[in-house]
Amino acid sequence: MWETTNNVWNNIDDLICGAICLVFGWGSGTLGHEWFHSIVATTLGYAVTFGEITLTTGSVFVQGDMSSIETILVAGAGSLGLIIAGVMLIYSSHNKMLRMIGVVFLCRAWIDALPLCDLDGAILEHSACSAMGSAGYVIAWAFVIFEVLVSGGAIAHVIKSDAS
Predict the structure, then answer these.
(1) Which are the contacts of 124, defined by CB distance < 8 A and separation ≥ 6?
(2) d(C-alpha 142, C-alpha 1), whole Å
(3) How much is the CA Rg of the chain, to the nearest whole Å?
(4) pLDDT band at 119, cuts 50/70/90?
(5) Sequence-ordered alpha helix ranges (H) in 44-134
(6) Strand, coil or helix: 68
(7) What average pLDDT is seen over the chain?
(8) How far apart are CA 152 and CA 74, in angstroms?
(9) How far lies 145's CA from each of 4, 5, 127, 141, in Å?
(10) Could you report the per-residue pLDDT of 11-47, keeping only the tens digit for each?
(11) pTM score
C-alpha cells in the first residue's frame, strides 16, 4: 500500500497535468463543439445565437425551420468537429498535454453523440427517423459506433506511443 501511495506522490506532476488537461479540454471542447454546430448552421444559411455556455454544456439556437437532413447535419457537426480536432491533436503533436486534450475531445464527442435524453445524438436520431423511418435508429447508433471506434483507435495510439 505504501508503494502505491509513494508512486502517486512521485508522479504528482502527471496528476496535475491530467487534471489541467481534463478541465481545459472539456471546457474548450464544449466551446468547440458549439462552434462546429454554428459553423454548419450558418453555412446552411441560418442565423444562430448562443445560449448559456458553461464548462460542461452549451447550446446553439438556430433561427428558422430546418429540414430533417439539415438538422442531422447540424446535430452531427459538434461531435464530428471534435473528433477531427481530437485526432489532429493526437496524431500531429508530440506534446503530452495537447495529446491528452485530444483524448478529452474524443471522449466529449462520443458522449454527446449518444442518442439519449437531450443529447445531440437524440436530436440526430429523431431527425433521421423523421426522414428515413426506423432506419434512423440504425444511423444514429452507427454514428456512435463510428465515433467510438475512431476514438478508441486514437486513444490506443496515445497509450502505445506514451508507453514506448
Answers:
(1) 71, 72, 75, 76, 113, 115, 139, 140, 143
(2) 44
(3) 18
(4) confident
(5) 68-92, 96-112, 120-132
(6) helix
(7) 87
(8) 24
(9) 36, 37, 18, 6
(10) 788 888 888 888 999 989 989 999 999 999 999 999 9
(11) 0.84
